[in-house]
Amino acid sequence: MGKKLSAGKELSPRSILIWRIVQVAVWLVGVAILYCLFFYPKLGIALFWNILIPVAPALLVISTGLWRNICPLATTNLLPRHWGLSKRKILSPTQSSLFNLIAVISLFLIVPLRHAVFNNNGPATGILISSMALIGFSLGFVYEWKSAWCSGLCPIHPVEKFYGQNTIVPIPNAHCHQCMNCVKPCPDSTPNIHPKAATKTFYHRLSGTLIIGGLPGFIWGWFHVPDQTQFTNLITFLSVYEMPMLGFSVSFAIFLLLSNIIQARYERKMIRFFAATGVSCYYWYRLPELFGFGGFAKDGLLIDLSNSVPLWSITLLTVMVTLFFFYWLQFRKQHKNSWVIRPEYGLRKVG
Length: 351
Prior knowledge:
The protein is mostly helical. The protein has helices at about 15-40, 40-70, 70-80, 95-110, 115, 120-140, 150-155, 155-165, 200-220, 235-240, 240-260, 265-290, 310-330; strands at about 1-5, 170, 340, 345-350. It has one domain (about 1-350). Helix content is about 60%, strand content about 5%.
């Protein structure tokens, strides 16, 4: 026996074809970067860590749905579903929330290792990306749509929910041609989704609190650690976590304190403020690094302009970018947009 829920919006065959072409093109770009990481490490590192990753936070703020539609890892994860090979299992709320918590913890564990390994080691970065692709692909054989990887274990997903609270406009869902209610609330189709939107379980609440409260300080601390290529012992290796965790602890404590003081009706505004602080802090340090004005020699360098342009021009650019993100997340009118347009509901067996 089947039950059909309310209808959504379907893409035309022509629109689907266009999206598939774009997804394949971006996927091939991802494969090319992965190839470079293994065989041309310097180029691969520049393409991945110094071009793709610096663009990502801004894209998540402005149009999370676009990234959700074209992310190469998402395309890889959803291949079994599109091929009709997925068992299409539905995660329970507890399982889903546990996946979210694992994603948050993974983010905080992996990012400091950039200083220790990944920023200067192309093959290691390639192995990291390949491992995530393999995990996502494997999960696609078991679970429905984006539930297990894109909305679950992916370490980028918590940042998507944090930064994507006021996206510019919802766009068509180029992956899920039917909504099967595989995640509740669906991050793609819920207007103004944020990390604390789901509170069904302890894991939901914990993961939301950790990413909101901890990420801004974590980012600040991360930029106060230089890239390192040699370690004499385990203690020096683990030292890359010291400043990020210190920053995490401070901003997390501030968030907990404010949460107990500020009235519930102002909670969303506070969450947006922490999101704006996090993404602005990232670009405050990352933009100067990209152009040769960073605090640690050539760390994070894309193109050295230190002898070509005055420092004040980079400072002005950085201030303008910072103000933009505060405007976008904190002061811009909150449009009740989801990342993508929910597709038509599908048939679900009941009884």
